[in-house]
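Our consortium's second objective concerns turning raw sequence data into structural hypotheses that experimental partners can test. To show how far this objective has progressed, the report includes one record in full. It was chosen at random from the queue rather than selected for favorable results. The single chain below, 681 residues long, was entered without modification.
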Amino acid sequence: MPTDIRVLKQRAPGDGPLLRVRDLRVEYGTPTGTVTAVAGVDLDVDRGEFVGVVGESGCGKSTLLFAIAQLLSPPAEVARGSVEFRGQNLVTMTDRELAALRWRNFSVVMQSAMNALNPVTTIGAQFRDAFAAHARRTSEEVRRRSVEVMELVGIDPVHLNSYPHQLSGGMRQRAMIAMALLFTPDLVIMDEPTSALDVVAQRSLMVQIKELQRALGFAIIFVTHDMSLVSHFGDKLLVMYAGEVVESGPTRAVFDTPAGSAARHSRRAAGPERAIRWLPVRGPLPCRANALPQKPARALPGRRIPGPLSAVRPGVRGALEDTGGLGRRGTVGAGEVAVTTVEPLLATSGLTKHFRVGGPFSRRSLHAVDDVDLTIGRREIVALVGESGSGKSTIARLLARVYRPTAGEIRYLGRSLADLRGRKQNLAYRSDVPMVFQDPFSSLNPAYRVSHGIMRGLVLHRRELDAAGRGAEAERVLAAVGLTPPAEVLARFPHELSGGQRQRIGFAQALAYRPKLIIADEPVSMLDVSIRIGLLNVMTQLRESEGVSLLYITHDIASARYVSDRILVMYAGHIVESGPTEVVLARPKHPYTQLLLSAVPDPRAPLAVDAADRGEPPQVIDPGEGCRFRGRCPLAIDVCTTVTPRPRVLGPAHEAACHVAEADAADRGDLRDPALGSELR
């Protein structure tokens, strides 16, 4: 990390907290009355302190953040309370006075970097815009400072000339943090900056944020729905529910002995390594008038617990039951592996997809998917996991026939997709193999009611149904994914539904076609923990009730463990390990699988940072021979640089493409060729 950081302003010393929030109340005016989003919140943030604010979607976290930064827009307004920053009340300031403080004294990092960054200008140009708005500097000073902050966050300054879409998700988020640090502010407010990142990128970014904080001395308010993410980094933790802070105190104290119901549920949801029976979440997040039941709790030293919430809504919001052990189905011990053979539904052989890059006359190719063999059986859930940029979504689009393969074959029900001819046969395949996309809001047309998308699909793919039959089928599929009453849901627009409800609509649309296989591309990555639970349960219930198979694409290895029968681990276009979920995650053979598992946040274990965290998945443009993970692998040997490893059977139905794992298996005498099923001596 560079030590010659140019501080563009002097920090103002002072006594007391850097930020003091007292009795803050934020209300939204609606046609049906006033909704209280933040109800009487108190918060102190000291200089150099890391404060985590956690809670599920709709609890008021982001509204609190925007109220502190004075970024609320109608119909939201601060109804009561004060926000004092360095002794000045931000609530009573004019827009011009606030403009003098924003970015120079406090800055905000928004949730979606792709939406927050301007897609049509380079990163460097956006840095220059920030200087033009907040500080007068020469072109050379702006260039030098831009280079410094890019190096601070671990990005090569050459990417100042890159557009946002040319960076990975983790790099875009770090670019946002670099922009927030341009003027070395005293306070940086971060609104779910890691929610769309994979576990390795999350841990790498969190470690980097903490290192920057220690080096520069700024305070952080870190808003997230993932309580485990801040367990190793936060100095203080606030748990919010229904607009209130239901518990606050030192992070370790809240984790070790959580007093409130919301804190207990959040903490138990933060333990992905243990076997957890996830129970359905009933009902939407309550408004202020319908709050979570909470028993009086005993305050511990250094912790503040508010009194019981009023006007309790009947019913349980959610529950977790910890069954102990490793994995969804219990601990897997040596000699206890049960391999179930299922009838193949879809299979690929040598599936390859290359994209030409560098302009119309370039011969360079990006190898997004290379030589992938996979099978999906009837009534089977297969998880495809890996970091952002590993090729998972490209495989999904190949299977959905959005892309055509460069090489290789896809066979469905024993027939090659290359043999499909005409609109009728292609529609029949897409009816059998629909896709559920990652972003539920962008995949639904905001101008039409929910009924439009479902009915349109039924008209196209279920021509045997008349109008009454289509209406009945639409209600049936909504009930199957837990959206009731169906008639009311059909009449709503997408913006009137929560994120979890919109994603269930995606599954309902797919289910209306009577599919045999649903391709779900990161369906829960943008949802908080409690909503994820309900959607994962929907996936398993669809397998049981509708007899469908699912390809579940995710970077969340904890949810893959819960929902899948088999798991495929992908890196840089290759499947590097595959097998039964219990086996792969209990005894991973490939170093990349081990990295993914080690990166899953576990508040019970000490923080471990691997050197591989610092790396990015390679841009595999015209790659040569050799293992593509070798640049990040702590176990790499000479052969890794010259020979691409082939998948080898290292156990019952367990394969890995790794020279080190292959050598270890050969030493034990249990190495097999997957194509031959015989031992290699």
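The partners drew two points from this record. The two ends are 49 Å apart (CA to CA). DSSP finds 20 helices and 26 strands in the chain. Both points have been shared with the crystallography group to help prioritize constructs.
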